[in-house]
UniProtKB/TrEMBL annotation:
Keywords: RNA-binding. GO terms for molecular function: RNA binding. PROSITE patterns: RRM (PS50102). The lineage of its organism: Eukaryota, Metazoa, Chordata, Craniata, Vertebrata. Residues 6-56 form the RRM domain. This is RRM domain-containing protein. InterPro entries: Nucleotide-bd_a/b_plait_sf, RBD_domain_sf, RBM, RRM_dom. SUPFAM superfamilies: RNA-binding domain, RBD (SSF54928). It comes from Neogobius melanostomus. The keyword Lipid metabolism does not apply.
Length: 56
Protein backbone atom coordinates (compact mmCIF):
# COMPACT_ATOMS: atom_id res chain seq x y z
CA UNK A 1 0.00 0.00 0.00
CA UNK A 2 1.24 3.50 -0.86
CA UNK A 3 1.82 6.06 1.89
CA UNK A 4 -0.62 8.99 1.89
CA UNK A 5 0.25 11.95 -0.30
CA UNK A 6 1.56 14.87 1.73
CA UNK A 7 2.34 17.24 -1.14
CA UNK A 8 0.08 20.03 -2.37
CA UNK A 9 0.37 21.28 -5.96
CA UNK A 10 -0.42 25.01 -6.30
CA UNK A 11 -0.92 26.56 -9.76
CA UNK A 12 -0.95 30.12 -11.08
CA UNK A 13 1.33 31.68 -8.50
CA UNK A 14 2.78 35.10 -9.30
CA UNK A 15 6.35 35.30 -10.57
CA UNK A 16 7.22 37.45 -7.56
CA UNK A 17 6.08 34.78 -5.08
CA UNK A 18 8.71 33.58 -2.64
CA UNK A 19 8.69 30.41 -0.54
CA UNK A 20 8.18 32.57 2.58
CA UNK A 21 4.98 34.01 1.07
CA UNK A 22 3.56 30.55 0.43
CA UNK A 23 4.60 29.35 3.90
CA UNK A 24 2.68 32.25 5.44
CA UNK A 25 -0.48 31.60 3.41
CA UNK A 26 -0.56 27.79 3.61
CA UNK A 27 0.94 27.47 7.09
CA UNK A 28 -2.50 28.10 8.58
CA UNK A 29 -3.49 24.58 7.45
CA UNK A 30 -0.66 22.87 9.32
CA UNK A 31 3.10 22.75 9.70
CA UNK A 32 5.04 22.86 6.43
CA UNK A 33 8.13 20.74 5.76
CA UNK A 34 9.20 22.29 2.43
CA UNK A 35 8.12 24.72 -0.30
CA UNK A 36 9.51 24.16 -3.80
CA UNK A 37 9.03 26.64 -6.66
CA UNK A 38 10.53 25.15 -9.86
CA UNK A 39 12.51 27.45 -12.16
CA UNK A 40 12.66 27.38 -15.96
CA UNK A 41 15.93 25.76 -17.05
CA UNK A 42 16.83 28.47 -19.58
CA UNK A 43 15.41 31.70 -18.15
CA UNK A 44 15.81 30.85 -14.44
CA UNK A 45 12.37 32.42 -13.89
CA UNK A 46 9.64 30.71 -11.80
CA UNK A 47 7.42 28.40 -13.85
CA UNK A 48 4.19 29.58 -12.19
CA UNK A 49 3.50 26.68 -9.83
CA UNK A 50 4.79 25.29 -6.55
CA UNK A 51 4.75 22.22 -4.35
CA UNK A 52 4.06 22.51 -0.63
CA UNK A 53 4.97 19.51 1.49
CA UNK A 54 3.29 18.77 4.82
CA UNK A 55 4.54 16.17 7.33
CA UNK A 56 2.94 12.70 7.45
Amino acid sequence: MRPPNTSLFVRNIADESRPEDLRREFGRYGPIVDVYIPLDFYTRQPRGFAYIQYPL
